[in-house]
Design a protein that fits this description.
Blueprint: E1 2-11, E2 14-20, E3 25-29, H1 36-48, E4 68-75, E5 80-87, E6 91-95, E7 98-99, E8 112-115, H2 120-124, H3 127-141, H4 143-169, H5 176-212, E9 219-224, H6 230-239, H7 241-247, E10 258-263, E11 266-267, H8 268-271, H9 274-296, E12 301-304, H10 313-321, E13 328-332, E14 343-347
Parallel strand pairs: 3-13, 3-14, 8-12, 12-13
Antiparallel strand pairs: 1-2, 1-4, 4-5, 5-6, 6-7, 9-10, 10-11
Helix pairs in contact: 3-4, 4-5, 4-7, 5-6, 5-9
Length: 351
Amino acid sequence: MWITKIKLKNFRNYKNEEIILDKNINLFFGENAQGKTNIIESIFLASMGKSFRAKKDKEMINLDSECAEVEIEYEKSDRDGKVKIELFNKKNIFLNGIKIKKLSELLGNINTVIFTPDDINILKGSPQNRRRFLDIMISQLKPNYMYHLNLYLKTIEQRNNYLKQIKEEKKDENLLDIWDEKLIEEADIIFKYRNEYMKKIKEKIKKIHGEITNNKEEIEIDYFSECTSKEIYLNLLKQRRKLDIIKGFTTKGIHRDDFFIKINNKQLDIYGSQGQHRTAILSLKLSELNIVKEEIDEEPVLLLDDFMSELDEKRIKSFLEKIEDTQVIITCTEKLEVENKKILIYNVEER
């Protein structure tokens, strides 16, 4: 698939902009704070229905305006399409001119894989970063996954509120059975999705990482969950009930899932060098790219924000050499030249 046109109205620093994209590599270069990342953000917004960096939608609206619009036109092998998003007091999303009621209706229409400087923290940072990586990938391929994840998170919130009421107001703790039953059902569904896609990543990442490192490094990835079956999670909830009441929140569940990477049998987040972290995240992102491609039977759009900042020239070339027939949108501070690659270049300057 590929994106043909971007229209921005009062989105970030863009008052009224129309951008035509090429099927191959599109390079947006310029000094910092000129609006390059805003272009990547608009595509991601049309893909996922939310920003990868803004906590609130209103942050994406131009400071001199009350509303903003993002319109993305795209082509797939079997159809053309258009996503339009209006940001005002609330967010309205239109797919081919028809307003959608659920976010799941948007997911999977524009398939993207994004790489940003902050992605180095997927492997170096907290488990939340790794879960978010999984959630974004799976949601695009299985929109129903996001429905179950949101339902699980809402149930956790309700259960946590009731845990506090038990502690502070002496409510009946037996009523926790209601929330426990809901949690178990949703956790089981979420685990099956995550486990399936972690297996796919494991299959891809070994070969990819071996190629990138000339077989000097062997990579392993292990998925950890406390909810591998309904019975196990139910027992955990019962065992931890008293502790959960004391703490006022649910201490066990699918919201604690994590995965770990080892390089040559050493845990990356403890013993890995900066270079190994960078190579591992490249391998992870290329694995994601290949999985999405196989699932949708065509190439997703690759978004590379500030691509030069975290990678040296060798890794950049190694990454781009492995990308064939993929539309790539790159932002960086300098022009980028890649042998045997056609590049459409935009110089971005704030006006």
